[in-house]
């Protein structure tokens, strides 16, 4: 095995885990499948073929390309349609409007930006009307990813922000683009006892852009609900939740302090009243003793 294949095997996650993560795109895929009986997909940098397998299971005729010999051999053993080929070359060989889906999972961060721009241009050409371009990449909005985890892979060039990657298909002329933030801990959507660690590591560690090619409205309208939905959790949302919990804690502490202060003030008032009562009692007792003594002196 080569280094990169072994690295992927150890740190990428099991094929079952990756297939489960990729299933987030099935609602988009199924819409494409309903539009075109002959629904074909091309996966750029197909790796171990999780997406190819998922597409087969959902009635999509999917092929993949990769430059890694071990990845291509692995996919071939799995009977997936896979070739050793450059991603851009594979797109340039595809006919106009011949594909429904072009995908690249964790490939964008591996190529120079000018190549990435060409990939997006070619994807627009080869996609059918309402076809989809899917590009997934590590999310540098997550502080742990952007400052550390991204650099675990020596073949990564640089992180791509959601703003930049989503603008690229817009610039090229796609009809619309949606950012999908992915893979976060679902419990953080309704967080309790949110910690600073959650803020620094909890926002969606991956994201993708799903770009749709221009088409007649009767085709694109089928995708409206998917493009209008919200996906994942942002660093800003986690910070807001953390601040909210912190303010609530401070409010509870202030309330407790006020209650304790009021209780202490009431106790001090009671103590002062008791002290005054004791002093008055002492005065009365001393006055009575002096009177008794004077009376006794008079008798003598």
Shape: elongated
Mean pLDDT rating: 90
Biggest β-sheet strands, sense, barrel: 7 strands, mixed
Strand order of the largest sheet: 3-2-1-4-5-7-6
End-to-end Cα distance, whole Å, is 124 Å
What does this structure look like?
With about 300 residues, this protein is α/β, with parallel strands linked by helices. Helices cover about 55% and strands about 15% of the residues. It is built from 13 helices and 7 strands. It has helices at about 5-10, 15-20, 25-35, 50-55, 70-75, 85-95, 115-125, 145, 160-170, 195-200, 215-220, 225-230, 235-300, and strands at about 40-45, 60-65, 80-85, 100-105, 125-140, 175-180, 205-210. The protein has a 7-stranded mixed sheet, with helices on both faces. β4 (about 100-105), α7 (about 115-125) and β5 (about 125-140) form a beta-alpha-beta unit. α2 (about 15-20) packs across α4. The chain is elongated.
